[in-house]
Amino acid sequence: MSNSPPFIGSEIEKALSWKDAAEAIKQGHKRPRAKLGDTLLQTEKGDLLTRSATIEGLGAGVKAATINLENPSQTPPLPAVQGAFFLFAPNTGALKAIIDGAVLTRWKTVADSLAGASILARPHPKTLVVIGTGFIANALVEGYKAYFPTIETVSVWGRSHDKAKALAAMHDGAEPAEDLSAAVFEADIVSSATPSTEPIIPGGAVRPGAHIDLIGAYSPAMREADDALMKKARLFVDCVDTTIEHIGEIMIPIREDVITRDDIESDLYGLCDGENFQRNDEDVTVFKNGGGAHLDVMTALYFADASKRL
User: Fold this and answer.
1) H or E element at residue 55
2) Is the dihedral of CA 24, 30, 32, 35 positive or negative?
3) How would you classify the pairing of strands 127-131 and 189-192?
4) Is the same domain home to 36 and 184?
């Protein structure tokens, strides 16, 4: 009998659900805070990202991934993020599983945002706007519609209207948006997954009560929300340790005195562990999805458990 750890690929998706994935993230944040370590190196065509985490009582993991933003434009399209995740047992340190990085990233990223929205967004949202046309944007439409069955209208906006049209055509009831400000004005939830280095979400167009889910920015130079939005919103992050001093979405407005560190009200550790969050109907909430390796560990454990049902 082979002692080789199992490889978990796309076949696992048959055993997964978005609600269960988000719940795995929320339950993971009731554990002690993860210990984290990241490196980000430039390559010829993008970046090499290595993220590691250990969570007391759950285990440890390391993800090695390449990020090539030109990949979605290839024929056939490739994920912008590719790599593998190594999941280790908490007590023995044994290698429990090797997981396809693109599949894990898809589920980890969207589940993180769904966990945030489940707490911060108003109940029963009806209108969703997804900004972006890539691998994650496609999963966001799928995930949000599955988690929030009250969503009736989905708009997709991208710098390429043809790509937005193509992505929308993959989902029943979704339509491409030509005017981003107009789409945002109608949205209960705006979820953005772009590689933008300049703000693209106009705060002036965000209506009272909306929830804004920011995913795309992962480096110190990147951001998606403009200053007006950061000033008017209640601000939350998935993890203070992976966002505030690492990602331009938060770093730049703090550096430019648009917001302060104290304006970040909480992260998922606080929100999921009994912290009493209350929102008024008029509150605008912003959630920065930083995508740290602790989320990979939580999602990988969900994968490993789900694989037993295949």
Assistant:
1) strand 47-55
2) positive
3) parallel
4) no
- Say whether pLDDT at 1 is over 70: no
* Separation of alpha carbons 210 and 233, rounded Å: 9
Query: Up-side HSE of residue 193: CA atoms within 13 Å toward CB?
Result: 26
Strands, E, within 89-197: which ranges? 95-100, 127-131, 153-157, 174-176, 189-192
By the 8 A CB rule, do 193 and 199 touch? no
Under the banding of pLDDT at 50, 70 and 90, the label for residue 40 is confident
Residue written as tokens 């049209």?
Answer: 165
pLDDT digits (tens, 9 = 90+) for 56-70: 999 999 999 998 888
pTM: 0.93
Element of type H or E holding 214: strand 211-214
DSSP tag of 14: G
> Where in the sequence is the domain holding 56, given as residue range(s)?
7-104+294-309
Residue 259 resides in a domain: yes
Helix, strand, coil percentages for the chain (3-state, nearest 5)? 35, 25, 40
Does residue 42 sit in the same domain as residue 115?
no
Domain match, 175 and 303 both:
no
**Helix or strand or coil: residue 263?**
helix
Q: Name the domain count of the chain.
A: 2
The full length of the chain comes to 310
For residue 1, being part of any structural domain is answered with: no
What is the C-alpha radius of gyration for the chain, rounded to an integer number of angstroms? 18
Q: Which element (helix H / strand E) includes 63? A: strand 59-67
